[in-house]
């Protein structure tokens, strides 16, 4: 079975018998917040009971956190679960997405036999207001990742406003994936949560997966511009989409504001340090604003060379619009980033 995402630590451990240093999945290097860890552990005391299928306590906590109605929120087993549910709920005949972009949008749409328009980003990968003109007039669902995965670049404000206007005037659904936004310097400036009340067709996807290192617990949520769509999303998933430990961990994580501040400070400092260090190795680096960096090395065997040195990076040739030689790395701790830079130097220059 072919894997199209990063984070295949299990395959590495089966092959080498040791744990890799994983730069292929962009997860918080600080690990699960301690309060969330305790809450998840305590929830196991009631493991014989079904979890709350409506995630009521978690939705109330999210409603207070984002200042949105609780009935506009639906929780799922990671953002990927909600992407698939959204496509199932809408069953669009025609959809559009910007490329390169997260693979699950296209996979979920294709499963619904949807006609997909792939809208190429410009050479510098930055989404500008001109991108709105690329969206076909009969588009029913448009996916946008902000910041983009795999480039890490934020969309320009003019682009966001132009796409919101399309959503309002055409009656299409605009699904904005903000799963990496909390890693950026000023998330509130770029989030569209404030536009939900005036945009019934807007859906914002978020997750604890990356920011709070809950990839193994699986927890994401959607904020919907209309409660009816949230209800529809809920009905298109399994009856108990979120485990009790994941729900408890999510509630606890929302209280830990200091964790996010420490994480953002670490990522910002290390990202700024990594960009010139990677360029000094002769790599073309896209100056992303998330917790990962995309670069072009030209060498199609670089991922294999680093794997042999115990380090996983994301080979990006599977992204529509990218070719062999493009790679993505997570931004991790200073010590881990130094190990990556040393290994890169050895693999590229001997």
Layout of secondary structure:
Elements: H1 9-16, E1 21-22, H2 34-43, H3 56-66, E2 73-76, H4 79-90, E3 94-99, H5 103-111, E4 115-120, E5 141-145, H6 157-170, E6 173-177, H7 187-190, E7 202-207, H8 208-211, E8 220-224, H9 227-235, H10 244-255, H11 257-280, E9 284-286, E10 292-296, H12 302-307, E11 311-312, E12 314-315, E13 326-330, H13 334-349
Parallel strand pairs: 1-11, 3-4, 3-5, 5-6, 6-7
Antiparallel strand pairs: 2-8, 7-8, 9-10, 10-13, 12-13
Can you describe what's shown?
There is one protein chain. By secondary structure, the chain is an alpha/beta fold. The protein has 2 domains: 9-31 and 258-349, Aspartate Aminotransferase, domain 1 (Alpha-Beta Complex); 34-255, Type I PLP-dependent aspartate aminotransferase-like (Major domain) (Aspartate Aminotransferase, domain 2), CATH 3.40.640. Helix content is 40%, strand content 16%. The strands form 3 sheets. The protein has a 7-stranded mixed sheet with strand order 2-8-7-6-5-3-4, sandwiched between helices. The protein has a 4-stranded antiparallel sheet with strand order 9-10-13-12, with helices on one face. The chain has a two-stranded parallel ribbon with strand order 1-11. α6 (157-170) links the parallel β5 (141-145) and β6. The model has no long low-confidence stretch (mean pLDDT 95).
């Amino acid at each position: 079975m072919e894997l199209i995402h990063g984070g295949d630590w299990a395959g590495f451990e089966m092959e080498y018998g040791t744990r890799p240093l994983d730069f292929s999945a962009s997860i918080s290097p600080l690990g699960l917040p301690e309060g969330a860890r305790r809450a998840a552990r305590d929830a196991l005391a009631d493991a014989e009971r079904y979890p709350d299928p409506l995630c009521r306590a978690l939705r109330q906590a999210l409603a207070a956190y984002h200042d949105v109605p609780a009935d506009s929120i639906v929780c799922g087993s990671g953002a990927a679960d909600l992407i698939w549910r959204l496509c199932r709920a809408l069953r669009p005949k025609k959809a559009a997405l910007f490329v390169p972009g997260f693979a699950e949008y296209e996979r979920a749409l294709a499963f619904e036999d949807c006609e997909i328009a792939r809208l190429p980003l410009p050479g510098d990968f930055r989404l500008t207001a001109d991108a709105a003109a690329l969206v076909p007039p009969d588009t029913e669902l448009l996916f946008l990742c902000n910041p983009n995965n795999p480039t890490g670049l934020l969309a320009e404000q003019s682009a966001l406003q132009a796409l919101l206007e399309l959503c309002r005037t055409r009656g299409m659904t605009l699904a904005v994936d903000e799963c990496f936004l909390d890693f950026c310097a000023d998330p509130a400036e770029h989030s569209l949560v404030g536009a939900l009340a005036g945009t019934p067709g807007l859906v914002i996807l978020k997750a604890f997966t990356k920011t709070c290192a809950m990839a193994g617990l699986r927890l994401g949520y959607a904020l919907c511009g209309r409660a009816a769509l949230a209800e529809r999303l809920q009905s298109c998933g399994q009856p108990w989409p979120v485990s009790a430990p994941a729900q408890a961990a999510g509630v606890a994580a929302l209280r830990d504001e200091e964790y996010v501040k420490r994480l953002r400070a670490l990522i910002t400092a290390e990202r700024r340090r990594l960009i010139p260090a990677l360029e000094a190795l002769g790599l073309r680096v896209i100056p992303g604003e998330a917790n990962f960096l995309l670069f072009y090395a030209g060498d199609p065997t670089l991922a294999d060379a680093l794997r042999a040195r115990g380090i996983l990076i994301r080979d990006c040739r599977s992204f529509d619009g990218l070719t062999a030689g493009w790679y993505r790395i997570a931004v991790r701790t200073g010590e881990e980033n130094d190990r990556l830079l040393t290994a890169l130097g050895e693999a590229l220059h001997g």
